[in-house]
From TrEMBL, chain A:
Listed EC numbers: 1.2.4.4
Top class in the EC scheme: oxidoreductase
Protein name: 2-oxoisovalerate dehydrogenase subunit alpha
Protein keywords: Oxidoreductase, Pyruvate, Thiamine pyrophosphate
Main function: The branched-chain alpha-keto dehydrogenase complex catalyzes the overall conversion of alpha-keto acids to acyl-CoA and CO(2). It contains multiple copies of three enzymatic components: branched-chain alpha-keto acid decarboxylase (E1), lipoamide acyltransferase (E2) and lipoamide dehydrogenase (E3).
Keyword RNA-binding: no
Gene3D superfamilies referenced in this protein's UniProt entry, alphabetically: 3.40.50.970
Biased composition (Polar residues): 1-16
Cofactor(s) essential for the protein: thiamine diphosphate
Domain annotation Dehydrogenase E1 component: ranges: 85-348
Organism of derivation: Arthrobacter liuii
Catalytic reaction equation(s): N(6)-[(R)-lipoyl]-L-lysyl-[protein] + 3-methyl-2-oxobutanoate + H(+) = N(6)-[(R)-S(8)-2-methylpropanoyldihydrolipoyl]-L-lysyl-[protein] + CO2
TrEMBL record, chain B:
Species per Swiss-Prot/TrEMBL record: Arthrobacter liuii
Protein's name in the database: Pyruvate dehydrogenase E1 component, beta subunit
Pfam families: Transket_pyr (PF02779), Transketolase_C (PF02780)
Cofactor or coenzyme needed: thiamine diphosphate
Record keyword Oxidoreductase present: yes
UniProt keywords, alphabetically: Oxidoreductase, Pyruvate, Thiamine pyrophosphate
InterPro entries: THDP-binding, Transketo_C/PFOR_II, Transketolase-like_Pyr-bd, Transketolase_C
Transketolase-like pyrimidine-binding domain span: 38-213
Domain of life: Bacteria
Length: 409, 373
């Protein structure tokens, strides 16, 4: 494959099995050049506009080789239901933080379309590697909401079983999880499994070294990884312009030899269309893809952050008008796919999840101090056994002294 | 990536001379025993071969480990034998190597990865500290990471800058990592097999000056012993958490690990000529640490010197002194001494001999242990 005229075509006898053929096959099917395949379309893909109207085919941002069919009604209704649940979850969790029942919650309010599409595009055998802001995506994938929120409740660093859910731990160190995604995909490929892995990060994270290493490894080893970048415009307070002056984050793909695409991150229709095709391509052997979702973090980074210090309320208001949930409601209602009964049923579902969260996070889950030592290794070392006995003794003495004080009253 | 390094063991002063003497004496005694001498490099290479043959989920990758067989040739022949899907070169990115290994281990593989040199491993530090060490704990034991990070470490090869760090203390200080370091050819084989069998992540520190150390070892017999123990049942039977008495003695204890063990043995040999009987303890696994064997020796002798190439400040050697002091205070006839590298960045080759613990410096420390006569 030749990227530019003066760039020597690489030797295709790579140590991995006939990698370029699958990519070339994908390119051939679209009838475009490798460059046109890898470079994102000139405009972001948008199917439903902020007013909830399906855009005419010619105005969806597509171009030859970058065409996307509108997902089916059933998929869109399921996505809408998850959007409503996701919004409710975000707002419920923020309320629980204000009430002191959770230490912190990085809300994806405003980014629910990205969250929902990231989960719905995958099959059961696929994997997802989320960040700390992707709780709604993890829940949409089917993980129990209370287990998801355990990381923020404060009794342990994680609450769900990554192997059972096929969802990596919600990762805090930026983009380190992208390499885990690469490894999971690599292992699956070596065993001949058709697993696709979706690896998530934000716009600020694209500055990290592991972003580069992960994309490069995935491309060199031709792995079925979809790098899904939610460009929500801020890394805590620092705007995108301080992270990158690339034409878009999706343009970074071509530098690694993979395809990139930009999509309206508040349009779940376009997101599903683009991600569904990316998953199909990756499963078919195209190698990795990079999808940039153009969205906006409507709230502060967390409750500990004050976003009035670094952005204007007018900017936030502008994005409120592009809300992903309202947009989809208008679209589905307009198409006659959603009526009051449907809305009521979905709202009830969302309330059920919110109640589940309130109950689960209000419970005072007792912590076991001895658990400190239990999972450091497969079995505790002699030193950990010593320290465990020390703590047990200390607690026993504390309890005894409390008892004697009580008795002395 | 890696400049040419001096591989002659004659290149650097008394330490290597002592190593050579120890090796020569080992080789001499081997003639009587039978099996031909093999190098530490060969033992490690054989361990990788046997582990890959025994378990198809064992994968080897890193920089130059494929066609070249690694800059120290530890992975020599693996790609030719097992194919480029099981032993392969990666892009030059250490964080990528470790991070990908984490994902592979999550998904059922047992990666054995190579950091080309000790000081080249630092880009991977975040992956090692934030993920390799913590994954089992944060998932309450549901995700195991059976991966081995092989790191050639230490000095004594006349290496240029960034090729001779003693980085073991960083890993030993990180809760959730096991840290092995073999000091004999046989342990090179045994301990690497155990590390690969372990369900916990192991940082496997290979004393690079000992890659060419030879000893009379029957690798086939070691393989049979390993297989007899059975995969997954070596815990408690093998080297992990079990220090070795490398040389028995009665007057004082020299506590050493990895590259310092042959230096300690040479010092004990020299002390014996002066009529002093030194016991040498080879720590073998820094984590978990064998308090019992070390303390038993110190309680017996009442005197101890800890020897390590790494800087002494806030190091594995300071930890060993603290542990022994806490457990053996009333048995000690003198404060525990340390012979370590100075607290300076690793020196250039021509200054290495002043930096590294050597026989004379160890013997001086032993002389300082408040002998009564």
């Amino acid at each position: 494959m030749t990227i530019s005229a003066d760039h020597t075509a690489p030797d295709t006898t790579s140590p991995q099995e006939a990698p370029d053929n699958a990519l070339n096959e994908a390119v051939k099917n679209f009838g475009i050049t490798v460059e046109d395949y890898m470079l994102p379309a000139r405009h972001q893909i948008q199917m439903v506009d902020p007013e909830g109207r399906l855009k005419p085919r010619g105005e969806q941002g597509t171009q030859p080789g970058h065409e996307y069919p509108v997902p089916g009604d059933r998929e869109l209704l399921a996505a809408y239901e998850q959007l409503v649940v996701g919004r409710r979850v975000n707002d419920q969790n923020s309320a629980l933080v204000r009430q002191g029942r959770m230490a912190v919650y990085p809300s994806s309010h405003g980014q629910e379309a990205c969250q929902v599409a990231a989960a719905l595009c995958l099959s059961d055998g696929d994997w997802m590697f989320p960040t700390y802001r992707d709780a709604v995506a993890v829940m949409t994938r089917g993980v129990d909401p209370v287990q998801v929120m355990t990381i923020f409740r404060g009794d342990w660093h994680g609450g769900y079983d990554p192997l059972e859910a096929k969802v990596g731990i919600q990762c805090t160190p930026l983009t380190t999880q992208l390499l885990h995604a690469v490894g999971v995909a690599h292992a699956a490929k070596l065993r001949g499994e058709d697993t696709v892995v979706l690896a998530m990060c934000g716009d600020g994270a694209t500055s990290e070294g592991d972003f580069h290493e992960a994309l490069n490894f995935a491309a060199v080893f031709h792995l079925p990884v979809i790098f899904f970048v939610q460009n929500n415009k801020y890394a805590i307070s620092v705007p995108l312009a301080h992270q990158s002056v690339a034409p878009s984050l999706a343009h970074k793909a071509v530098g690694y030899g993979m395809a990139g695409e930009r999509v309206d991150g508040n349009d779940v229709v376009a997101l599903l269309a683009v991600l569904d095709r990316a998953v199909a391509l990756a499963r078919g052997g195209s190698g990795p893809l990079l999808v940039e979702a153009n969205t906006y973090r409507m709230q502060a980074h967390t409750n500990a952050d004050d976003d009035t210090r670094y952005r204007e309320s007018a900017e936030v208001a502008e994005w409120r008008a592009k809300d992903p949930v309202n947009r989809m409601r208008t679209y589905l209602t307009g198409r006659g796919l959603l009526d009051d009964d449907g809305e009521a049923r979905i709202a009830a579902h969302a309330e059920l999840v919110a109640a589940q969260l309130r109950k689960g996070l209000s419970e005072d889950v007792p912590v076991d101090p001895q658990e400190l030592f239990r999972h450091v290794f497969s079995s505790p070392t002699p030193q950990l056994r010593e320290q465990s006995a020390f703590l047990a003794d200390e607690l026993a003495r504390d309890a005894a002294s409390t008892d004697s004080k009580e008795a002395g009253k | 990536m890696s400049p040419t390094i001096t591989t002659s063991s004659e290149a650097n002063g008394n330490v290597s001379a002592a190593t050579a003497r120890a090796a020569a004496s080992a080789a001499a005694s081997a003639e009587a025993a039978g099996p031909p001498p093999v190098t530490m490099a060969k033992a490690l290479n054989s361990a990788l071969f046997d582990a890959m043959r025994a378990d198809s989920s064992v994968l080897v990758f890193g920089e130059d480990v494929g066609m070249l067989g690694g800059v120290f040739r530890i992975t020599d022949g693996l790609t030719a034998t097992f194919g480029d899907q099981r032993c392969f070169d990666t892009p030059l990115a250490e964080s990528g190597i470790v991070g990908m290994a984490v994902g592979m281990a999550i998904n059922g593989m047992r990666p054995v990865i190579e950091m080309q040199f000790d000081a080249f491993a630092y880009p991977a530090f975040e992956q090692i500290v934030s993920h390799v060490a913590k994954m089992h704990n944060r998932t309450r034991g549901t995700v195991k990471l059976p991966l081995v990070i092989r790191i050639p470490y230490g000095g004594g090869i006349g290496g240029v800058e960034h090729h001779c760090d003693s980085s073991e203390s960083y890993y030993a200080h990180t809760a959730g990592l096991k840290v092995y370091t073999p000091a004999t050819v046989a342990d090179g084989y045994r301990m690497l097999r155990e590390a690969i069998d372990s369900d916990d992540p192991v940082v496997f520190m290979e004393p690079k000056k000992m890659y060419w150390t030879k000893d009379s070892v029957d690798l086939g017999e070691l393989r049979r012993l390993h297989d007899a123990q059975g995969e997954g049942t070596t815990a408690g039977l093998g080297s992990e958490g079990r220090a070795a008495v490398a040389r028995p003695g009665t007057d004082a204890t020299l506590i050493a690990y990895g590259p310092s063990v042959p230096t300690a043995l040479a010092a004990a040999e020299a002390a014996a000529l002066e009529g002093r009987s030194l016991e040498v303890i080879d720590v073998r696994t820094i984590v978990p640490f064998d308090d019992a064997t070390v303390c038993e020796s110190v309680r017996k002798t009442g005197r101890a010197v800890v020897i390590a190439e790494a800087h002494g400040f806030a190091s594995v050697s300071s930890e060993i002194v603290a542990r022994v002091q806490e457990r053996c205070f009333h048995y000690l006839a003198a404060p525990i001494r340390r012979v370590t590298g100075f607290d300076v960045p690793y020196p250039a080759p021509k200054l290495e001999k002043y930096y590294l613990p050597g026989v004379d410096r160890i013997l001086d420390a032993v002389d300082d242990l408040q002998w009564e006569n």
